[in-house]
Amino acid sequence: MIRWFKKKKGRPEVDSDQVQEQFDGDVVPEEIPAAIEPIVEVSELVVEPEPEVSTLHVAEIQESAVSELAAAVADEIGLPAELEDEAGKLSETGDESVSHPGKPGLFRRLRARLSRTREALTSKLDRLFLGKKIIDAELLEELEELLITADMGVETSLGLIEAVRDKVKRKELTDPARLKTHLKAEMLTLLTGVAVPPLHPGKPHVVMVIGVNGVGKTTTIAKLAHHDLEQGEKVLLVAADTFRAAAIEQLEIWGQRAGAAVIKQKTGSDPAAVVFDGLAAALARRVDKVYIDTAGRLHTKVNLMEELKKVARTAAKQIEGAPHEVLLVLDATTGQNAINQARLFHEAIGVTGIIMTKLDGTAKGGVALGVVQETGLPLQFIGVGEQMDDLRPFEPEAYLEAILG
Ligand SMILES: Nc1nc2c(ncn2[C@@H]2O[C@H](COP(=O)(O)OP(=O)(O)OP(=O)(O)O)[C@@H](O)[C@H]2O)c(=O)[nH]1
Q: Is the CB of residue 117 less than 8 Å from the CB of residue 359?
């Protein structure tokens, strides 16, 4: 189930210098040429590019690949859930078909991809509860610490513990063995409690994708486009990350893989100009959906947030209500930093939804809870690998089952 949301009105402003400091690094800026080359459209498949080099550690990839393979083998030969787990060391207990009737294969893969987070969380929780007979203040304090160190964010962890403490006070919860179940229920309430703004789609529907360097914006756009194309939609990609030399080329490669046309200009062009022309092309070609790829870092003298705001204003000049969505891509492996980024981008630009990538390569998957709780934004998609179909709509129950199951 895919939800699309309209941008919120009346967003608070933020000190953009402060925001810029967050993202400016010590990168030597490239020289930005003033001339803007004419638009070039990529319409034909030319070369089959080499696969991207992953940012993940080799051992992590191998671990994930082993889990994946075990799941696939189990699927193939139809082992019962308990034996699959035994064979692939995929999970500790439970028959997933009970909690996820109708799509056990999909859930099994999600579970395999989130194995690092699950292993980290459940082993710590089990150790904490081991031999405990009562839920006392000390146990709750240790649990609070565990959640914070699991990258859920301080505010979120305190909120979850407070809810559990209330249940203990009301004597609804007394047995430490039941703590995990109650915690999971509180987490589900948190994840499903986010107010979902109504959808106001445009024609074409314009989606601006933002986020810092390397979080997975470009590949995520390709995955979204791939999904839309499979639904029979006509999709156009706009390469508005004109700062990084390889970014345009990368979008072209991914556009070719997904089968979507790309509108681009020369490196160093004004991103707003690329968007203006890109949306004119989108209107002329009557496409259904436009994805705008934006920069995650700019020339050190240019304020990233101001540039992104300008891109959004320019989009609105071409198409009423555009961008209809602003999706922020966050890298789960950055843990607590992802929460800070979400807050800053939302305050500056106004984000409508979050996409969290690289959940397959990290034990920090709990950060999804922190991001939702501390921004009040819906988590719409999660990235669990580098292939085209490794982007999934976020389903809170399946996610919690996969990390705590
Ligand atoms: N394991 C894993 N890798 C991912 C995922 N999403 C993206 N990646 C990888 O992350 C790396 C960076 O992705 P890009 O799409 O280039 O990131 P970007 O945000 O566009 O980066 P810039 O263009 O530098 O701003 C690539 O190697 C991707 O294959 C994911 O869900 N899981």
A: yes
Partner residues linked to 47 by β-bridges: none
CA distance 215 to 334: 9
Residue 40 CB neighbours (<10 A): 14
Residue partners of 181: CB distance under 8 A and separation at least 6 = none
CA of 29 to the centre of ligand 1 (A): 21
Q: Which atom belonging to ligand 1 lies closest to the Cα atom of 361?
A: 1
Q: Which residues line ligand 1 (CB under 6 A)?
A: 52, 54-56, 211, 213-219, 241, 244, 247, 250, 296, 357-358, 360-361, 383-386, 390
Q: How far is the CA of 60 from the centre of ligand 1 (A)?
A: 16
Q: Containing H/E element for 305? A: helix 304-318
| pLDDT per residue as tens digits for the range 137-165 | 999 999 999 999 889 999 999 999 999 99
What's the CA angle centered on 400, arms 212 and 127, to 5 degrees?
105
Mutate to test the pocket of ligand 1, among 358, 388, 389 (most ligand atoms within 8 A of CB): 358
CATH code, residues 16-51+197-404: 3.40.50.300
Hey, whose CA ends up nearest to atom 9 of ligand 1?
216
> Coil, strand, or helix at residue 18?
helix
Ligand 1 atom at minimal distance to the Cα of residue 297: 25
Q: Please tell me which of 73-77, 206-210, 212-216, 334-338 the model is most confident about, judged by mean pLDDT.
A: 206-210
* Domain ranges, ordered by start, for the chain: 16-51+197-404
ipTM: 0.96
